[in-house]
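To: structure subgroup
Subject: Chain for Friday's discussion

All,

I'm putting the inputs and outputs inline so they're searchable in the archive.
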Amino acid sequence: MAGHSKWANIKRQKARVDAVKGKVFTKISREIIVAARSGVPDPEGNFQLRTAIDKAKAAGIPNDNIDRAIAKGAGKLGADNAALEAIRYEGYGPGGVAILIEALTDNRNRTAADLRVAFSKNGGNLGETGCVGWMFEQKGVVEVSLVPIETGRKRRSDTVVIQEDALLEAFLDGGADTYELIEAEQGAAAEAVTEVSNLETLSQTLKEKQYAVSRIELRWIPNNTLEVTDPDQARSLLKLMDALEDLDDVQSVTANFEMTDELMSLSVA
């Protein structure tokens, strides 16, 4: 196993979407509600709930809001949000880019209609179930924050190499399939990919080895990617991603495209 950069562009796309999406509190609160309803309403015995709570705290959601969402999921505050269900939608963006959308909704017709409008206004179209899903594979992802280390301009110092070796050993012990070093919001980080069934084991192993786990999530990863080189297509595509992410019912959007940093910057200018 070795570090790789295959998902670097996808990570940058995700970071860009995270930076512009609104209503973060509502989206994460819905995750907590569904997690609390689908298992025991106690994070100690519910990994999905524990992960959603960690995400909420990282986003700065107050503890009172978190407790209220757990109570709603447990049915202690009436029937509110009892009808929320997880649905996956699929479609195509400009140039045939495959797009996978995860939503939590209490009204399928409303959500489908909103998605259809967003696609049609931005050069894409909402497809049938299964039209692009086969192009993606769901994986568990754990992000670890790394302590900043002074490095030279062109290559890592010996200290960084030693740290990466230790990190590789920890990832292997936890059952990770691949990893890569990335530049996250808080600075240098490493991201490990594993099977969904092994996500809890990997995260727990890293925590036991005293690594600062900054993100734990399920992510759809494309088996193949399309390189976007045309500025107009890039602008339309990123505009579509923004429109989809901004919908109330949408929790996440994943696409199978890559583009250069320069084109990404040009597209958001």
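Points worth raising on Friday:
The mean pLDDT is 82.
The CA atoms of residues 112 and 172 lie 41 Å apart.

D.
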